[in-house]
Amino acid sequence: MSAQQRPKSTKAISYVDQVRQALNRFQDAEWLGQSSPLAAPYFLGGQENEQLTAAGRGQALQAAIIAAAAALWPGELPANRELLLAAVNDERAEMGHKGARYLYLLLELRYLRQFFPPHIAPRADNDIAVCDFLTISRASYFNHLKIAQAALGEALLQTVRPTLRLERPLRSSTSLIGREDLITQCLNDLQASRTVALSGPGGVGKTTLAAAVARRWSRQPVFWYTLRPTFNDRLDCLLFSLGYFLHQQGASGLWQQLIADGGRVDNPDLALAQARGDLQQLTPPPLICIDELDVIFPDADLLTTNQLQVHEFIDGLRPVAPLLLLAQQPAPLADAHYTLAGLTVPQTAVFLSNATIAHTANELTQLHAYTGGNPRLLHLCLALARSGLPLGEVSAELPHTPALHALWRRLWQRLAGDEQDLLQQLCVFRSAAPADAWGQADVLARLQQGQLVQQDSLGGMSVLPVIRDLLYHDGQYFPAALREQCHLAAAEIRAMRGEFTAAAYHYHEAGETRAAVQVWFPQRQQEIGRGYGGTALALFEQLSNRHLQRREREALALIQAELYQLHGASEAGLTAVKTVSWSRSSEMAARAALLEGEFLNALGYPYRALERYEEGMTVTAGLLNKLVQFHYQRGVTHIQQRQLDEAWREAQLAQYEAAHLQAIVKEESGAYAEAIALFESALQFAAEAGHDAGLARTHRELSKTWGRMAQLEKALHHGEEASRFFARIGDRLSQEKMNSSIAAHYFQAGRFADAVRVAEPTVAFFEEARIPYWTAVTASTLAEAYYETGKLAAATTTAYKVLRLEETHTQPYAYYTLGLVARAEEDLDAAAAHFQRSQQHAQENGDRYMEAYAWRIWGEVLRAQGEQVEGGAALETAVQLFTTLGMEQEVAATRRLQEKSGD
After folding, report:
1. What whole-number distance in Å separates Cα of residue 8 and Cα of residue 869?
2. CB of 529 within 8 A of CB of 517?
């Protein structure tokens, strides 16, 4: 690789460094557009950005930075400077110098100047004046500013989301030949909601034809996804891309659930239900194109779990969206299937004429015989002809087989040095590389003309897949040492744009395991939350700690353990934790002890888990003691390097977790009053920390506790609050589980119509998500609510639905409802049989609560049938059970039934 062809910078400039440089030149839009990779369309996204001038791109980055800074501010930004300063001063009085509002003020004073125009003091370039304005030292000012810059960088990634870079149909500079009728047919099929598959050998033009279909699709937008082995062929990768795409279109159910679950995909059926729900919100639904489908369709006996999950997910989308599937082999999911063949001889003549390549009839015949009319082979021959080789010699001098490899070898030898350099650099990228990382536009144009490199509409470019495979594995033209050098450059390109998982992959391929760990470890939670957990596991589980220093060994083990935990692999996680000897007093050691305890508990070793938890607590206590000593010494010397606002929030979160856990312990032991007091304290800590997930959890527990105490109005209030907070954080699954409990509370309160209103959509959700337990639980409530509102047919249908689900816990409730319906219809024999089954199933389940009610109503029916002795015995059994349960009101009610019957 020649020096002039390397990326603009091979120095390891971090992403935060790029943010800092952009901030330092924030007011110079021209410089930003010309010099900052953060202003490139590749990072900012948006098809319109590619057409902007340098100043226009700089202005787009300025707007993105302003939006990211505003996201730091809790809630809406103040209307004016006076309100902003008042809010910051209030925060500083309570939390010190690292609150979010204070960080925003630092960025505002130093760079943004939205509230402080240039003529308003203090001036941005007068550090002393700014320090005086903030009443802090100059050293503290610059330390605080670094924190603000890092926070802005993270906020910029969250608002722009360059790592969730959605694919677009590739642009082609050549016209399609002989495909017009097929394009029309595909469009007609798709508009009729049919799933269309295009198949054919590599290079025949499937992707190009599909891109033409996508460009003509009248119901824009289009979702395009190319499956790549070991890179994005996992369900979590597909879900995050599709979820983000749907979120951009205004349907956010799947996206919010993914964010709420922190990158974890535990229930593919739930994810499918969320995606289908989002697609049904969009009218008309978007076109979904999946390329390289062969990746998930190997031999049936070789299907992995991941491939099967992707296959089933795509199949589940067919009823709600038009799908266009591309593969070399016929896709089994299609309603309409079309096989593409090579160009005919007359079409090949048109191809050459369009390229202004003169040819004889004999040359045309030879070329077609050699290439079979395959457009990819024709383009390679065309590139050879354009390089100066006469067309007659293109096929005459090449061996008969293998055609593609021979063509590529001959073409490589005729490429210019700068073209070879760029191809080598690009072929190490597994997805589109940022075009702005290289300065030779003329080189790129030549490679595009030769159909060797393709460019998308978002500033990305990539080598044609088949060319990438040929070059990447060619030891002669791309030796291992050069390949590692290119991976190292690629790692730096990815890292400076905030693509940390991709950067770690390239560092690993470059032989830099230590750098891979260092670049990913600090960003691991954010990357997992962006859907890269599966991709990261595939990378880091193969890394060895043999040549790492102690700190990197611990970091690698923690990465592996956390990723295994994310994917439910407890045994592998436990093994990863045990691969290193942990430091006695470090945050990583405490985290490792917690993980080891969780793995042991999951594997059925609770007592060993408790031992590891205690060790973790010992380490944590030591760290807290050191932290207290540090703060004490810092206070004594009046060094304001860091303030306590983040520590204060962490303390609030710790207090929340402690209070919440203590409350659960009290609630389980039956000390409901103490539990409620602790839950209320936990609510206060969560509210002060802005911990919405904690508020949702604690409201849920309070609802359950008040329900057990028969305080139904309070149970409903907290249940509705829990549902609201779960909706706020986008956790649809927990929200619907809470709605199931709310429906039960409504039923217990005698508000049967409200129970039906809440339970009906909740049952539909759980059915769509294929969650049988919660479907059965909610449907059993719904069935009895139908009965109470006089909808006997609906009650019967729903009760039988519960029985078909075969969830043991709900069986007695379904039979109980069927008995109620039969009694209402005066079919006492059927009623008695149903109530008897209800009693038997409740007894088998150990559900003494339900068993007592079943005995009582069965006794009533037996008496009505004239079975006085059997009925009396059943009523007496009910009395005994209600007495044992401490349900005195039910004991009295049953006694009255006995007296009414003459007992």
Report:
1. 95
2. no
Start-to-end Cα distance in the chain:
100
CA 323/CA 317 separation, integer angstroms: 8
877 contact partners, CB below 8 Å, separation of at least 6: 855, 859
Which value, in Å, is the radius of gyration of the alpha carbons in the chain?
Answer: 33
pLDDT above 60: residue 592: yes
- Residue carrying the six token digits 């006694």: 895
Give dist(CA 462, CA 207) in Å, integer. 14
Question: What are the backbone dihedrals phi and psi of residue 199, each rounded to the nearest 5 degrees, phi first?
Answer: -135, 165
Length of the chain: 903
Range name among 310-319, 320-329, 405-414, 648-657 with the lowest pLDDT average? 648-657
Convert the pLDDT of each residue in 35-80 to its tens digit.
Answer: 999 999 888 876 555 567 889 999 999 999 999 999 999 889 999 9
pLDDT in tens, 534-545: 889 999 999 998
The CA distance from 874 to 894, in Å, is: 11
Which residue from 315, 330, 328 is spatially nearest to 272, judged by alpha carbons? Answer: 315
Domains 180-339 and 807-903 share a fold: no
- Domain locations along the chain: 15-160, 180-339, 345-414, 807-903
Establish whether the linkage from the previous residue to 399 is cis, with ω within 30° of 0.
no
Q: Which token pair is 5?
A: 């062809």
Burial 522-539 (b: 16+ CB within 10 A, else e): ebbebbbbbbbbbbbbbb
Report how far residue 437's alpha carbon sits from residue 448's, in angstroms, rounded to the nearest whole number.
Answer: 17
**Higher per-residue confidence, 775 vs 730:** 775
Instruction: Using alpha carbons, select from 840, 821, 842, 819 the residue that is nearest to residue 831.
Output: 819
Partners of 167 in the beta sheet?
224
Residue 403 confidence (pLDDT) = 62
Residue 608's pLDDT is 66
**Interatomic CA distance for residues 729 and 257, integer angstroms:** 8
The fold for domain 180-339 equals Rossmann fold (3.40.50)
For 807-903, give the CATH class: mainly alpha
- pLDDT at residue 2, rounded to an integer: 44
Work out the average pLDDT over 327-333.
84
Of the CA atoms within 13 Å of residue 358, those in its CB half-sphere come to 3
Q: How far apart are CA 600 and CA 141, in angstroms?
A: 46
